[in-house]
Design a protein that fits this description.
The longest helix is centred in the C-terminal third of the chain and has 39 residues, at 519-557. Helix 11 (171-195) links the parallel strand 2 (164-167) and strand 3 (207-210). The chain contains 26 helices and eight strands. By secondary structure, it is of the alpha/beta class. The protein is globular and about 70 Å long.
Length: 588
C-alpha cells in the first residue's frame, strides 16, 4: 500500500493524490476513537487486545510505534495499524541529491548572531531555496510573510542581495528587526571601507517591515496590490534601508500611504526591472491560516510568480467554508473535518517522539494521567465546563523540569524504578540513612562481613536481598506519594486557571486513587494516538497541495498559464519537525 511519493507530491499526480487522500480519510475514520477521544477514561477506548499486549511493554518500545516499528508477538491487527499509518504518511527525510537542502551556502557569523541551532538550520536551507526561485522567476521583490525577528529576510537581503519586504503583525518583532538590521549594516559598511568596494557592490539591506494590523486580515492581496501596483520614482543606486510603518491602523486604512516613497525612500523603486513585476512570497513556519492565505494570494495575485511556504501550528487552523482547512475540493468531498483534537495531534512529531529519552517520556505520560484525572474532577464537580473540553495549558512542564533536576523516578507503561546498586564496598552510599548507623558509618558495612554479592543461592534470601526488597518498596511508596502530590498540585493550578472554586483535597485523593491503577494504559493510549499524528499532518499538507493542483488545472483549461506545485521535505525532522515546504511557480 506504500505510495510513490516522488509522483504523488510532484508537479503531476492529481488523480493519484485524490485517491490517496480518500484512503487517508477512510483510515482516519476507522480509528476516529483514538484521535478524536479527549481525556475521560482513555483506557476504555482502546482495543482490549492491543492494550493487553502493550500494557507491560517498555517505554522505549512504545516510543518506536509512531515510526511503524512493531514486534512479531503483538496482535496482527496492531502491526497492520502501525504499518498502514506509516505508508499513508509523507516521507519526511530530505533528499541528499537536492544540493539546496543538503549543501546550502553557509550563513556568516554576523547574520547568524541571535539564531539558535534550529533557526540557523532552517534559515540556511530556506534562504537557498527562496533565492533559487527568485532567480527562476527573475524576482523584483521577495515578500517574507510572518517574518518574526527578520532572520530569513535579512539573510535574503544581505547574503543573496535580494530586495525583501518583511511583513509581521507584531510591533516588537519590527523593532527587533530594525535594530538587528542596523547592526548588520554597520558590519557591511565597515567591509566597504576596509576592502574599498565600490558602492554598487554594497549588499545593503533592502527590507521593509510593515505592521499590517491584526492577523485576522483575510488576505494579503490589498497589501500586495498597494505595493506592486503603485507608481515608483526614478531608479537610484542607493541602498534601501529598513523602514517601519507602525501606527497600528488596519491594513485597508493604510493602502493610500503604501506608495513607493513611503516604502522604499524618496527615489528608490520597488523593484530592479522597471515596471515588470515578479514577486516571490515566502514564509518560514507561517502560523495557522496564514499558510492557507499565502497560497490563495499566490493564485489571486498575478504578480506573485512563486511561493515557498513552510507551515506550522495546525491547531490554530480554522475549519469550514472558506477557512484554512479544508482548501481542496477533493478533501471537502471526503467529508472528514479534524476538529481541535485532530489538529492538535497533527502537531506531534514521530521523529521527536521516537528520540525522546524514556525518563522524559515517562514524565510526559504522568502529566497526561494528571490531565485524565482532572477531567474526572471536572465531570463530577463542573460538568458544563467538562463538556466543553477546556484547555488548561502545559501545566506539567515546570514539574517535569523539577523531576529531571531532582532525578525523581517517574514510571508508567513498562518503566521500572531505578535498579539498586548493591556493591558492598559502596553500600553505605546506596542504602543511605535507612540502613546506615549514623554514629559509625563503617560499622554498618562491617556488620555484613564484607560478603561477596555473588553469594546468592537459589531458594535462599541473604541480608542484601532483604535490603534490596526494602529499598524497592520504599521507592515505590515514595513514588506513589510523589504522584499524588503532583496531581493535587496540577488540579489546584488547573482549577485556578479555569477560575473555578477549589475541590476538597480528600476528593482529589479519592479520584487519584481511582485513576492511578491505569497509569500504564495512559502511556499506551498516547503512543497509539501518536501513530496517527503523521497521517493527520500529511492529510492537512496534501489538502494544500491538491488545492494548488486543482486551481492549476482550471487555469490550464482556460489557457491562462501553467502552475507547477510540489511538497518538499527541507529540514532534518529531528531538528525541525515542521519540515515540509509547499513550493509553487507560474510557468508561461
Amino acid at each position: 500500500m506504500a505510495s510513490n511519493w516522488d509522483s504523488l507530491t510532484s508537479v503531476d499526480g492529481k488523480e493519484e493524490l485524490v485517491s490517496h487522500l480518500q484512503r487517508m480519510a477512510d483510515f482516519l475514520k476507522q480509528h476516529e476513537v483514538l484521535w478524536r477521544a479527549h481525556l475521560e477514561r482513555l483506557w476504555e477506548k482502546m482495543d482490549k487486545e492491543w492494550s493487553k499486549s502493550l500494557e507491560h511493554v517498555a517505554v522505549q518500545e512504545l516510543l518506536k510505534l509512531p515510526l511503524g516499528i512493531t514486534h512479531d508477538g503483538w496482535p496482527s491487527s496492531l502491526r497492520e495499524f502501525a504499518s498502514i499509518a506509516r505508508s499513508l504518511s509523507l516521507f519526511r527525510k530530505p533528499k541528499s541529491s537536492n544540493h539546496m537542502v543538503s549543501k546550502p551556502p553557509p550563513i556568516n557569523r554576523v547574520l547568524a548572531q541571535g539564531m539558535n541551532s534550529k533557526k540557523l538550520h532552517e534559515v540556511e536551507i530556506l534562504g537557498a531555496v527562496v533565492a533559487h526561485f527568485a532567480e527562476k522567476v527573475k524576482a523584483t521583490d521577495v515578500i517574507d510573510v510572518g517574518a518574526g525577528q527578520g532572520y530569513l529576510a535579512q539573510v535574503l537581503s544581505f547574503q543573496y542581495e535580494l530586495p525583501v519586504i518583511a511583513i509581521d503583525c507584531c510591533s516588537h518583532h519590527m523593532d527587533v528587526t530594525k535594530k538587528r538590521a542596523a547592526q548588520i549594516q554597520k558590519h557591511y559598511k565597515a567591509r566597504v571601507q576596509k576592502d574599498q568596494w565600490g558602492q554598487s557592490a554594497f549588499p545593503g539591506p533592502r527590507t521593509l517591515t510593515y505592521h499590517f494590523g491584526a492577523v485576522e486580515t483575510p488576505t494579503l492581496l490589498p497589501l500586495l496590490n498597494s505595493i506592486l501596483l503603485s507608481e515608483s520614482a526614478a531608479a537610484s543606486n542607493k541602498p534601501r534601508n529598513i523602514s517601519v510603518l507602525d501606527d497600528g491602523n488596519p491594513l485597508q486604512d493604510k493602502s493610500t500611504c503604501l506608495d513607493a516613497t513611503n516604502c522604499f525612500g524618496s527615489s528608490q523603486p520597488p523593484g530592479k526591472h522597471g515596471d515588470i513585476r515578479s514577486v516571490v512570497v515566502a514564509g518560514l513556519h507561517a502560523c495557522g491560516d496564514l499558510s492557507a492565505n499565502m497560497l490563495r494570494n499566490f493564485l489571486d495575485c498575478d504578480e506573485v510568480n512563486a511561493v515557498v511556504c513552510v507551515g506550522c501550528c495546525y491547531n490554530l487552523l480554522s475549519e469550514g467554508h472558506n477557512c484554512g482547512f479544508p482548501l481542496s475540493e477533493g478533501v471537502k468531498n471526503a467529508g472528514l473535518l479534524l476538529d481541535r483534537s485532530g489538529r492538535d495531534l497533527a502537531c506531534q512529531s514521530a521523529e521527536r517522539w521516537s528520540s525522546m529519552r524514556p525518563e522524559a517520556a515517562a514524565q510526559n505520560f504522568q502529566v497526561h494521567t494528571f490531565r485524565a484525572a482532572f477531567q474526572l474532577v471536572l465531570q463530577r464537580y463542573y460538568p458544563k465546563v467538562a463538556a466543553a473540553n477546556p484547555c488548561v495549558g502545559r501545566l506539567g512542564k515546570a514539574r517535569r523540569r523539577k523531576q529531571t533536576c531532582k532525578g525523581l523516578p517517574s514510571t508508567t507503561s513498562g518503566s521500572k524504578l531505578p535498579e539498586i546498586s548493591l556493591q558492598v564496598e559502596h553500600l553505605q552510599l546506596d542504602i543511605e540513612s535507612a540502613t546506615t548507623d549514623q554514629s559509625n558509618p563503617d560499622k554498618s558495612v562491617e556488620s555484613f562481613g564484607q560478603r561477596d554479592t555473588t553469594e546468592k543461592v537459589i531458594g535462599c534470601i541473604t541480608e542484601i536481598d532483604l535490603i534490596s526488597q526494602s529499598r524497592q518498596s520504599y521507592l515505590e511508596k515514595d513514588y506513589i506519594k510523589e504522584s499524588l502530590l503532583g496531581f493535587q498540585e496540577y488540579a489546584k493550578t488547573a482549577l485556578k486557571r479555569l477560575r473555578l472554586p477549589e475541590v476538597p483535597e480528600k476528593e482529589l485523593v479519592s479520584i487519584w486513587e481511582e485513576i492511578e491503577p491505569y497509569m500504564a494504559l495512559v502511556g499506551v493510549f498516547w503512543s497509539l494516538r501518536a501513530v496517527l499524528a503523521p497521517v493527520l499532518e500529511s492529510y492537512i499538507l496534501l489538502d494544500r497541495l491538491l488545492f494548488l493542483k486543482e486551481q492549476a488545472l482550471k487555469a490550464n483549461n482556460e489557457d491562462r498559464e501553467t502552475i507547477i506545485s510540489q511538497l518538499v521535505p527541507l529540514f532534518d525532522p529531528l531538528v525541525s519537525p515542521r519540515n515540509m515546504a509547499i513550493v509553487a511557480m507560474r510557468c508561461a
